[in-house]
Specification:
The protein has about 280 residues and is of the alpha/beta class. Helix content is about 35%, strand content about 20%. It contains twelve helices and twelve strands.
Length: about 280
Amino acid sequence: MPNIIEISDLSSPELDVYARLTQAQLRNRLEPEKGVFIAESPKVIARALDAGYQPLSLLMERRQITGPAADILTRCGDAPVYTADRETLATLTGYQLTRGVLCAFHRPAPLSAAQICQNARRVAVLENIVDSTNIGAIFRSAAALNMDAVLLTPSCCDPLCRRAVRVSMGTVFQVPWAQISASPADWTDNGIRQLHALGFKTAAMALSDRSVSIDDAALAAEPRLAIVLGTEGDGLAHSTIAACDYTVKIPMSHGVDSLNVAAASAVAFWQLGNR
């Protein structure tokens, strides 16, 4: 039975998770077992529930209780449901809620790269990608286009930040992911060696004199391949490109030299995915 609570005080500490905690505080780096993330919209929340995530509370427009969010409420047990009109919730959070619903979930225990790569044939590796929209879009493409897992370097945006979760349409709950390397320096010094140790050949998505086309038959023939994508603007570090087994380009026309990393990931995953 839903535990509906009408909001009467915007400063109530129970609402801090939706209004006053920073992303770093939600993630709770010092005590990861206490970490929280926010899912937005009924469809995304349903995918989190499908994946076994445990809800802490919900924040929703009053009209959603008997509307599109009614089904997810039946799945959230006695988790408190804080409600008010759309304008009040926008004042509380600082933005208009997508589809009128937020849900706070316990963060899952982190997985290791070795765990998620054990049976993987194709993995995406994201180096220093900091834009949450790009992270979300890459996860959506990874889920749709046959990536078995996603690995992120320590400087990447958190895949469970609210915007990344929303842009991914909840696919971040469907594709296994983990951080690779303990620190940015460890990734720079040892990252590609870690991928080789996990049994992968590595393909750096970058333009260089030694780049091969993405439709090169050797790439498709690799039994295990890690597709390495770089940060917005600068792309992959030169040291990363040099350490990879392949440097791979997407053929372009009309004088365009490159694609946004999210668009490039979709092309790469379509061509090289585990089909």
